[in-house]
Amino acid sequence: MTKRPSEEDDFFISDHGLNTESELDILRSKLSRLEEEKIALKHKLAEEKLAYLISTSFADIIQDPRRQKAIDMKEVHKKIIQQTVAATQARRVQEVMSSYRLAGYTTFTFQNKYMGVRLDTFYNRHYYEPYYIFLPKDKPDIIERHTVPFFIPIKLLAKRLLPDNLDSLLRILHDLLLAYVAKREQVKALKCHVDTSIIKVNVDDASFSAVEIIVPDEDPR
After folding, report:
1. pTM of structure
2. How far apart are CA 170 and CA 149, in angstroms?
3. What does the longest C-alpha to C-alpha distance in the chain come to?
4. Contact 1, 28 (CB under 8 A)
5. Nearest to 176 by CA among 14, 6, 3
6. DSSP tag of 100
């Protein structure tokens, strides 16, 4: 379940002209539906894989039906259980990873001294470029490295929220990145669907928070 930003979160977003709450609500709604469909499909696929693993494992052990009585059935049972547990664990890991990616971010260890966070961006059913931040693994109280665009106030957010509210920091950063990517892609789509020799679309800053659309006056005649 996606948690709505608090008033404090809205303060950070609105201060920089990137508050697109209505757009984010639509994205969250679509994302929730896609997540449910994806998990259902993964369950179905995992069940089919599990059935295949069990059947093939059993077939490998009992290759000749005429020798079935001579086989230690306890060993057969043990191997089947092992295959079942391995398949279930693999399915669970895949579900967790998929859920984290759908939620927007995943964490990992980098060079054995940093906690890395990957922030995925998406808009209109497409994934776009990921962004990364790196915090000290043992004491995640500062952001030492990152690939977040310069116009997002990551230092201010880190100063106010770390180390106690890392989850809030990631949620706010993710919302800001989604807003940026959505605006950028909307401008690209607009330019593709209008005659730019007649209608001018000017972007005044790198964050796409100020876009000017100039439509010429109609011919007075």
Report:
1. 0.57
2. 15
3. 100
4. no
5. 14
6. H
Supply φ then ψ for residue 90, to 5 degrees: -60, -40
Phi-psi region at 17: left, alpha or beta (left = phi > 0; alpha = psi -120 to 50): left
pLDDT at 79: 66
Q: Is the dihedral of CA 69, 70, 71, 72 positive or negative?
A: positive
Q: Give the relative orientation of helices 21-61 and 73-103 as an angle to the nearest 10 degrees.
A: 170
Beta strands in 139-218 (DSSP E): 145-146, 200-203, 211-214
Identify whether the C-beta of residue 5 lies closer than 8 Å to the C-beta of residue 171: yes
Residue type, 89: Q
* Alpha-helix residue ranges (DSSP H) falling in 71-209: 73-103, 154-161, 166-193
pLDDT of residue 119: 94
* H-helix or E-strand spanning residue 175: helix 166-193
**Running DSSP on this structure, what letter comes out for residue 157?**
H
pLDDT at position 1 is 45
Rounded CA separation 60/153 (Å):
59
Query: 104: left (phi > 0), else alpha (psi -120 to 50), else beta?
Result: left
Q: What is the pLDDT of residue 2?
A: 43
pLDDT of residue 19: 47
| Tokens found for residue 188 | 């690209």
Q: What angle do CA 111, 114, 117 make, to 5 degrees?
A: 110
Can you list the residues of the chain whose pLDDT is less than 50?
A: 1-19, 61-62, 69
